[in-house]
Amino acid sequence: MSIDVRDLSFAYGKRQVLRQVSFRTRPGQLVAVLGPNGAGKSTLFRCILGFLPRYRGEIALCGHDLRSLDRRSLARLAAYIPQSSAPVYNYTVRDTVLMGADPFHGPGPSQQETADRVLETLGIRDLADRGINEISGGERQLALIARAMAQQAKILLMDEPTASLDYGNQFRLLRQVRQLADSGYTVLLSTHNPEHAFRFATDVLVLREGGVRAFGPAAETLTEELLREIYRIPLTVADIPVPGGSVKGCVYDT
Q1: Which of 8, 106, 155, 215 could form a disulfide with 21 if both were Cys (CB 3.0 to 4.6 A apart)?
Q2: How far apart are CA 30 and CA 201, in angstroms?
Q3: What's the domain count of the chain?
Q4: What CATH number should be reported for the domain holding residue 101?
Q5: Is the pTM of this model over 0.85?
Q6: Residue ranges of the ABC transporter domain (predicted)?
């Protein structure tokens, strides 16, 4: 299940936002999309999801030209997980997931089985009968991921999924997302935190001023020089000892 973007450009009127963006993913990749505010991350996601059809260039999902896909076909290939927010209606977690199982028909026994399976996969089946507004922000975000998985699409696009979560829930969520990638999903995830990319991503896509500044394996691509350039702050990339080895992290230079 791949995403293939070639020479993608997009403008809001006369304001150019994306400039000849090209990259390709493969199954099992968790690609962290980084860049300063205004770099084009959200616009890139909206183009891939078909929300902004007036782009130039090519986007293919699993070998299918995006322009040739209707909404149902697109939903079978790619699912979107927005930032967590408190819904207006306090549906149960199970009903929330069932909204993704088959958005075009009422849920039947197979959809119920799918919902229970993805809740089990993400470790939140015990929350199935709880109201979506009665659980924590991290649990709610996992429920949104479960809803996307219930579509049975193998491409997951996540727009800053940890933005409203506390430190512990950020890492619990990203650990689950990495496990999904390891099981064969293709995940494109935007984040403002380079340490999330170091710890959980297989690869990074770095955007700057609407173009691709770098794309490749996280540990090799996110150099000290690149991060200083992108975020315009003095910082040091350090190896932090952990049980069994080390992980990379960023330290602000005062």
Answers
A1: 8
A2: 5
A3: 1
A4: 3.40.50.300
A5: yes
A6: 3-234
